[in-house]
Design brief:
73% helix; mainly alpha; 11 helices
Length: 304
């Protein structure tokens, strides 16, 4: 029995494959275009964070006034002839106070992110590798910190020990130690049975060498990604405490403190609170955007 030949009107397999590829390309094109569309936002965040960091590092050499000295008439409107952002209610330069406030916020936020990162990584790796009593002790430390409401803990520390920069850095650092510790432990546990760890043990490598050369480098990417999330959170915490009067105390400038002082003049001089609010918003938004970008680069499977 003869088999009927395919109709000439039916497309060949290669033609159907080509049309399928064209369909996939037409679907993927908007996605790629959308990805490119957001790249200006990413670069704008890079530029903004770079500008904030540059100002914070070089503020003492910038041609601006002292942040605590009275330079003119109080509540002067922003202008291009004297002070770009005007003066506050005392007559101090808003330009210089924003610049020095950037140094305050960056100093506190960076230190309060790096210190718990170091402590949490050490405790997490030790508890993973040795287990037993070490794990019990680290669990008790982490659960004890997590059982106290964060804001209540910070207020209690500030009231008991004062509201200076070292106190703020130490108190905020303690809050984030359990998160880093648990994240490093989870990452290290997934690495403990890998071939390179087994090979290092078989070759007689010491415990500290395995921790430093094998486990630590493979847990750092996820920890650094999380640090980019913690950094804007610390800026918000510091700004909130300063706004409530429990953070950096006058005359040292801080963005949260400037917002609190400008709140009293919202009807007459709204820029005194509005400008530091914008600076704080753009900084936190930029850090969150960069954190999402680097998380997608490092955690390819999760991003997909």
């Amino acid at each position: 029995m003869a088999v009927a030949a395919p109709s000439s009107s039916e497309p060949a397999f290669s033609d159907r494959a080509a049309s399928g590829s064209a369909l996939i390309g037409s679907i993927a094109a908007p996605v790629a275009t959308g990805t490119r569309r957001f790249r200006p936002v990413f670069w704008a965040c890079i530029i903004w964070i770079g500008l904030v960091v540059l100002v914070a590092l070089t503020v003492q050499w910038l041609p601006i006034h002292s942040p605590v000295g009275v330079i003119g008439i109080p509540n002067t409107n922003p202008n291009f002839s004297h002070e770009l952002l005007g003066t506050d209610a005392i007559g101090r330069s808003m330009d210089s106070r924003l610049a020095y406030g950037a140094r305050t916020s960056m100093e506190i936020s960076v230190l309060a992110t790096v210190i718990p990162l170091f402590i949490g990584v050490v405790l997490g790796l030790l508890s993973t590798y040795y287990g037993g009593v070490v794990t019990v002790i680290t669990d008790i430390i982490g659960n004890s910190i997590l059982s106290i409401p964060g804001l209540l803990f910070l207020l209690a520390i500030v009231v008991a020990m004062g509201s200076g920069k070292p106190v703020l850095i130490g108190a905020i650092s303690i809050l984030f130690i359990p998160a880093y510790m648990r994240l490093s432990r989870a990452s290290a546990m997934s690495q403990m049975e890998r071939e390179y760890v087994t090979a290092a043990r078989a070759m007689g490598a010491s415990s500290w060498r395995i921790l430093a050369r094998e486990l630590l480098p493979n847990t750092l990417p996820s920890l650094l990604t999380y640090a980019l999330v913690v950094l804007p959170a610390v800026i918000i915490i510091e700004g909130t405490l300063s706004f409530l009067g429990f953070g950096v105390q006058p005359p040292t400038p801080s963005w949260g403190q400037m917002i609190a002082q400008g709140e009293q003049y919202m009807t007459t001089s709204p820029w005194q609170a509005f400008i530091p609010c914008l600076v704080l918003f753009f900084t936190v938004f930029s850090l969150n955007t960069l954190g999402d970008h680097f998380r997608a680069k490092i955690d390819v499977r999760g991003a997909t």
